UniProtKB/TrEMBL annotation:
Residues 1-27 form the signal peptide. This is SIMPL domain-containing protein. GO terms for biological process: DNA damage response. It comes from Rhizobium terricola. Keywords: Signal.
Length: 246
């Protein structure tokens, strides 16, 4: 049976020899990494706002939650009815906050401690968020709302309903700046600009700027407050990765 062992020995020796052989070396092209250059550009476009987001609230307090709610609902109904008369569309009127909260009183005892809190009344808050598309109406709307019962203000945020055209212009300016920068860098380095490897973009809408916030009273609204919309700036940053021709 000795002759059966020979093929096995030959096969084992062949496998060991194959394992000992060095792996084929990588080609020069495989080892060489592609040279690249990364540039960024920024584009800005400022345009006047064409819409304002306005928040207003009616706050009423009473001894009972029912009485506070009744007073609040009556005032808010008058405010909403007036807004509709001023051609504010239903889609632009939205309840943004509604709450019923107890009011507490905590008296101090003779020994310097405090008694257990006692509910002495209730506060009802009902808020509205409005989209005002006619900015010429803004001051008049605020004035009328205060006279009808709004006694807490929110923020005025000036924005644009459709800023797509402005964003597109900012995007074009950002790309142009990145391309010009890439050309300048490669020319200065004495190399040639190659193909585009990657493009990415960062875009953020303008930060909301609170323009108006105060506790209101009817006697303070003798005239519509002056409102200045200013401009909204849309900024786009573009990053481009180019290959460098060797």
């Amino acid at each position: 049976m000795r002759h059966l062992k020979t093929p096995r020995l030959v096969l084992a020796a062949a496998l060991l020899s194959a394992a000992a052989l060095p792996l084929p070396a990588l080609s020069a092209e495989q080892e060489k990494r592609e040279a690249t250059i990364i540039v960024s550009g920024e584009g800005e476009v400022a345009i006047a706002p064409d819409m304002a987001i306005l928040s207003l609230s009616v706050v009423r307090e009473a001894e009972t939650a029912e009485a506070a709610l009744k007073a609040n609902s009556a005032a808010m109904a008058d405010v909403i009815a007036d807004l509709r008369k001023k051609s504010i569309a239903e889609r632009d009127i939205q309840t943004s906050n509604f709450s019923v909260d107890p009011l507490y009183r905590q008296d101090k005892t003779g020994d310097g401690n405090y008694e257990a809190p006692e509910i002495v009344g209730y506060r009802v808050t009902n808020g509205l968020t409005l989209k005002v598309r006619d900015l010429d109406q803004l001051g008049t709307l605020i004035d009328a709302a205060v006279k009808l019962g709004v006694n807490e203000g929110g923020n005025i945020v000036f924005t644009n309903d459709k800023p797509d055209a402005a964003v597109a212009e900012a995007r074009k300016a950002a790309v142009k700046e990145a391309i010009d920068k890439a050309k300048l860098l490669t020319e200065s380095a004495g190399v040639k600009l190659g193909r585009v490897v990657e493009i990415s973009e960062n875009f953020a809408r303008p930060m909301a700027q609170p323009m108006y916030r105060t506790t209101m009273a009817k006697e303070m609204s003798d005239a519509a407050p002056p409102i200045a919309g200013g401009e909204n700036t849309y900024t786009v940053t573009v990053n481009i990765t180019y290959a460098i021709d060797q």
